[in-house]
C-alpha cells in the first residue's frame, strides 16, 4: 500500500529549545517548515531547565568568552572539540540578546541589564575565582525560553504537527536523507514527510536508566532513527549523574540538604562518607559522593530488599531547619519518596541527568561520519542540534548552564546552515518506490503479533540493567555482564507484543515504538562504556581510575550493525585562538 | 474510548514530577472519571507545566474554583 506523502523544504523533529530555535530561523527565511512533536511544544523537556544559560556578558563583573571557553574545555575533561567550543562561547552573547529581544523575561540588575549569577565551574581568569555568568528567569529559565520561542514561531507561521511521532529517516540510494516517516497519533496513520533538509532535535534519552531526572518523553527517538538508518552514535558512554535522586522516582533532592548537615547511610546505618572523604565527608564533590554510593551498593551495603539504594538522613536537623532552610524538600520527599524526612531518611540513588553523547554533528549542525580517509564527510540533508546531537561541546562532562546555551547556539547555526544549503541548491530528490517499507514492516509486525514480550517488562529490565551495570561508577566485571544482558534484552525487544491494536491515541503502540529507540540508545551506551578503558569526565571506571590521553583522547563511534566501534580524533584546534592543552582536572 | 486515550497521552509532560503524579492518577482514577471530571482534568492539563506543578504541590491555588475537585484528587495522589 502506498503511504501518503507531503513535501516541505525542511522538517524539524522535536519542538524543545533547539528545534524551536532552528525552526524560527527557517520560517523567518520563508521556507516551508514542518515541526513534528510528540507532545505539545511547550511540554518539551527544556521546560525543566532551572539553572540558567551561560554567556560572558560581563554585566556585573569582568568576563569574556575566552574564560568561558577555558571552563568548558576543562569541564569536558579535554574531550570537547575546541573549534565548536570556541564557536559556542563566542556566540553566547548574541543568542542571549536575541532571546531578550524576542521577549524572554530575564532577571535584571538595577541598571536594567540582564542579571547574572555565579554557578559551579564558571570562573574568571582561567580558573582563578568564581564569576557571575549565568543568566536566568527566576527558577524557570527553560520554561520561559520555551514559551518565548514558541510564541515567536507562531508569529513566523511555523507549521506544527503536534502529537506526531517520527519513526524513521528516509535515505536514498546515495545515502542522502530525504525526509522522515511519521505517525499521527490521533488517527494512527503513517505519512512520509519529504524534505530537502531534516533536522533532528529530539533531546536526551535519560529513560534508559532506572533512576533519571528526565521526563518520560526522553526516549532517544532521534538516536534510534539514526542508528536504524546505519549511521553512528558518538560518545554515548558519557552520561552526567546527580548523586541524590529519589529512589524509584528520579526527582532530585538538592545538594543543599547535605550542605545543611544531612548525611548518607548504608544498610548498617554507617555514615560511610567518613571512610571515603574523612575531612569533608558528605560535602565531597558530586563525583566522589556518587562513586562512594555506587561502591556501597556494589559491595552489598545498599538498603532495601534489593540492596540498591542509600539513605539520606536529615531528621536530626529538626522540622524548623528543614522547613526554613530547605523549602519544598519535605513536600518532595512526602510526595515522591513516600517518607516524611522530619521522621525518616529519604531513599536516594545516583540519578542520570544529561547525555553528553549523541548524533555526531559539526558546529553547523550537519551530521558527519568518517570519510574513510581520516577525515569526515557530511550526510547530505541531515542535521542535528541540542541534547540529541554530539557537536561535541560537552565532551566527557557538561558545564552547568551550557545545555541551554547549546540549544540556542546550535539551533540557530543549524537553521542558518539549512537556509544556506537550500539556497545552494539542496533539492528534493526522488523518493524510491519502497521508501518507508521497513517502517511499515516494523509496524505490521507489532500489529499482527498475537503473543510475545511485554513492552513494560522489557523497558523495566532495560532500565534496571543500565542502572546496575552502566551507572555512575563502572566495574569491569559488571560492564562485561551488562553487555551480555543488554544484547539479550535487545533480542527480546524484537518480539514485543501489544494487546491494544486500536488506531486512535494508542499509547501502547507509542510506548512499543519508543522502546525500540531506548534499546538502540542503551546498547550504544553499554558497548561504548565497556570498551573505553580509562576514566574521563562522567565515565568513571574502577579498574582504570585515570584519564589516559595517550590511548583515549578520541571520540567513540558506535554502529548498530554488528555493534561495531570506531574512533575519531578530538578536534584540539580552536578556530582563532591557541589550543588549551590537557591538564589534570581539579577544582 | 478515544477521549480517554487522548487524555492519557496528554499526561505526558516536560517535567518528570508531573509525569509521576499523572501516571499514578491515570492508574487509579482515569477510567472512573465522569464526563465533568474528565473535562476539568483536560482544563488542568492545558496549563503550562510549571503552573500545573505549583497547583499539584499546593504552592498555588487555581483562579477558577471549579477546578478544585479534580485538583484535590491530584494532590492526594
Q: Would you kindly provide a brief summary of this structure?
A:
The complex is a heterodimer of chains A (587) and B (77). Chain A is built from 16 helices and 22 strands.
Annotation keywords:
heterodimer, A: 587 residues, alpha/beta, Flavocytochrome C3, Chain A, domain 1, Methane Monooxygenase Hydroxylase, Chain G, domain 1, 3 domains, B: 77 residues, DNA polymerase, domain 1, 5 helices, 0% strand
Overview of this protein structure:
The complex is a heterodimer of chains A (587) and B (77). Chain A is an alpha/beta fold and 587 residues long. Chain A has 16 helices and 22 strands. In chain A, helix 1 runs parallel beside helix 4. The model of chain A has no long low-confidence stretch (mean pLDDT 95). Chain B has a single domain, classed as DNA polymerase, domain 1 (Orthogonal Bundle), CATH 1.10.150.250. Helix content of chain B is 66%, strand content 0%. Chain B is globular. In chain B, 27% of the residues are buried. The chains are: A alpha/beta (587), B mainly alpha (77). At the A-B interface, helix 4 and helix 10 of A face helix 1 and helix 2 of B.
Amino acid at each position: 500500500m502506498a503511504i501518503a506523502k507531503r513535501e516541505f523544504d525542511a522538517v524539524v523533529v522535536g519542538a524543545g529549545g533547539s528545534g524551536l530555535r532552528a525552526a524560527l530561523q527557517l520560517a523567518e527565511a520563508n521556507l516551508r517548515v514542518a515541526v513534528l512533536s510528540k507532545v505539545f511544544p511547550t511540554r518539551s523537556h527544556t521546560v525543566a531547565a532551572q539553572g540558567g544559560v551561560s554567556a560572558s556578558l560581563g554585566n556585573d563583573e569582568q568576563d569574556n568568552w575566552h574564560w568561558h571557553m577555558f571552563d568548558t574545555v576543562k569541564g569536558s575533561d579535554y574531550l570537547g572539540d575546541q573549534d565548536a567550543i570556541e564557536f559556542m562561547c563566542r556566540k553566547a552573547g548574541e543568542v542571549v540578546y536575541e532571546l531578550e529581544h524576542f521577549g524572554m523575561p530575564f532577571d535584571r540588575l538595577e541598571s536594567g541589564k540582564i542579571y547574572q549569577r555565579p554557578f559551579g565551574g564558571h570562573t574568571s581568569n582561567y580558573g582563578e575565582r568564581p564569576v557571575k555568568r549565568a543568566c536566568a528567569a527566576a527558577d524557570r529559565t527553560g520554561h520561559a525560553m520555551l514559551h518565548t520561542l514558541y510564541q515567536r514561531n507562531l508569529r513566523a507561521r511555523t507549521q506544527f504537527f503536534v502529537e506526531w511521532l517520527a519513526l524513521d529517516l528516509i535515505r536514498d540510494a546515495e545515502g542522502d536523507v530525504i525526509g522522515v516517516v511519521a505517525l499521527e497519533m490521533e488517527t494512527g496513520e503513517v505519512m512520509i514527510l519529504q524534505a530537502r533538509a531534516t533536522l533532528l532535535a529530539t533531546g536526551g534519552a535519560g529513560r534508559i536508566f532506572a533512576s533519571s531526572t528526565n521526563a518520560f518523553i526522553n526516549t532517544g527517538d532521534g538516536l534510534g532513527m539514526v542508528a536504524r538508518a546505519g549511521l553512528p552514535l558518538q560518545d554515548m558512554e558519557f552520561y552526567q549523574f546527580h548523586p541524590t535522586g529519589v529512589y524509584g522516582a528520579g526527582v532530585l533532592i538538592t545538594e543543599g540538604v547535605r550542605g545543611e548537615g544531612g548525611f548518607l547511610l548504608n544498610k548498617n546505618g554507617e555514615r560511610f562518607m567518613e571512610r571515603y572523604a574523612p575531612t569533608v565527608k558528605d560535602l565531597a564533590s558530586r563525583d566522589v559522593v556518587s562513586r562512594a554510593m555506587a561502591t556501597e551498593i556494589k559491595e552489598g551495603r545498599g538498603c532495601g530488599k534489593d540492596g540498591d539504594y542509600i539513605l539520606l538522613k536529615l531528621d536530626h536537623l529538626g522540622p524548623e531547619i528543614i522547613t526554613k532552610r530547605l523549602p519544598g524538600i519535605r513536600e518532595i520527599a512526602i510526595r515522591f519518596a513516600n517518607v516524611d524526612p522530619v521522621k525518616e531518611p529519604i531513599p536516594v540513588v545516583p540519578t542520570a541527568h544529561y547525555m553528553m553523547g549523541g548524533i555526531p554533528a559539526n558546529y553547523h549542525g550537519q551530521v558527519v561520519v568518517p570519510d574513510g580517509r581520516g577525515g569526515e564527510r557530511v550526510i547530505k540533508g541531515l542535521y542535528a542540534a541540542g541534547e540529541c546531537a554530539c557537536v561535541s561541546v560537552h565532551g566527557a562532562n557538561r558545564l552547568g548552564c551550557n545545555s541551554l546555551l547549546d540549544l540556542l547556539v546550535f539551533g540557530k547555526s543549524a537553521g542558518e546552515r539549512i537556509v544556506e544549503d537550500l539556497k545552494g541548491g539542496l533539492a528534493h530528490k526522488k523518493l524510491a518506490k519502497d521508501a518507508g517499507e521497513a517502517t511499515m514492516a516494523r509496524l505490521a509486525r507489532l500489529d499482527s503479533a498475537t503473543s510475545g514480550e511485554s513492552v513494560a517488562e522489557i523497558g523495566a529490565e532495560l532500565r534496571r540493567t543500565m542502572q546496575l551495570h552502566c551507572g555512575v561508577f563502572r566495574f569491569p566485571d559488571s560492564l562485561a555482564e551488562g553487555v551480555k544482558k543488554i544484547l539479550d534484552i535487545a533480542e527480546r525487544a524484537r518480539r514485543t507484543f501489544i494487546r491494544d491494536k486500536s488506531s486512535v491515541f494508542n499509547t501502547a503502540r507509542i510506548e512499543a515504538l519508543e522502546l525500540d529507540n531506548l534499546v538502540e540508545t542503551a546498547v550504544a551506551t553499554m558497548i561504548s562504556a565497556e570498551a573505553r578503558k580509562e576514566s574521563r569526565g562522567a565515565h568513571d571506571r574502577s579498574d582504570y581510575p585515570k584519564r589516559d590521553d595517550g590511548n583515549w583522547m578520541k571520540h567513540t563511534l558506535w554502529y548498530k550493525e554488528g555493534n561495531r566501534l570506531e574512533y575519531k580524533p578530538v578536534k584540539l584546534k580552536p578556530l582563532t585562538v591557541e589550543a588549551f592543552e590537557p591538564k589534570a582536572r581539579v577544582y | 474510548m478515544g477521549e480517554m486515550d487522548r487524555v492519557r497521552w496528554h499526561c505526558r509532560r516536560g517535567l518528570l514530577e508531573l509525569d509521576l503524579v499523572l501516571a499514578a492518577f491515570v492508574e487509579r482514577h482515569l477510567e472512573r472519571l465522569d464526563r465533568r471530571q474528565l473535562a476539568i482534568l483536560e482544563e488542568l492539563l492545558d496549563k503550562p507545566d510549571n503552573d500545573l506543578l505549583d497547583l499539584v504541590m499546593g504552592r498555588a491555588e487555581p483562579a477558577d474554583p471549579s477546578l478544585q475537585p479534580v485538583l484535590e484528587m491530584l494532590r492526594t495522589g
